[in-house]
Amino acid sequence: MKNFDPRYNDIPKTEIHCHLEGAIRTQTIIDIAQEYNLQLPSYEASELDQHVKVLDQMRNLHAVLAAFAIFQNSITSAKVVERIAWELFEDSAVQNIRLFEVRFSPDWAFRGHNLDWDEALDGILRAKERAEREFDMAIGLIAITSRSLGPDSCVRTVDWAIR
Question: Which residues contact 158 (CB under 8 A, 6 or more apart)?
């Protein structure tokens, strides 16, 4: 999320259409890469920011796709998914977001390291429940399909989400 004048943090807000897999702190990406021996363009936060902070996605689709490749590679375990979700909720609470809609594509986000979708979701739910208690925030989760992965992926995602 883009940070605005800190005075806006006093105003309660609603955040909609936030992609969990695109909201990973730069330092978290570095921590995960070091723990799991993953390659990054840089292990310095200020340099890695140039690869993962997309400020104008409409002008540079290549930069968006490259950033999301780094994000996807960072989603290595259910424990990591829980950390990513918790940090997203924590950062949002600082901005006084009180109603939050977070979406994620399980097939896209969890395929890089073959995560079990249910275990990953359990991590998201633990972070969500904790954030709702600690930050007085209402959080909705939306499982989305990735049509670029084909119709079978979409059917699998829908079947998983509605069971």
Answer: 145
Q: Which domains does the chain have, with CATH numbers?
A: 6-162 (3.20.20.140)
Query: Residues 6 or more apart from 103 whose CB is under 8 A from it?
Result: 17, 18, 19, 20, 141, 142, 143, 144
Per-residue pLDDT of the chain in tens (163 residues, 90 and over written 9): 555 688 888 999 999 999 999 999 999 999 999 999 999 999 999 999 999 998 776 677 888 888 999 999 999 999 999 999 999 999 999 999 999 999 999 999 999 999 999 999 999 999 999 999 999 999 999 999 999 999 999 999 999 999 9
For residue 59, CA distances in Å to 8, 46, 56, 63, 64 come to 27, 22, 6, 9, 10
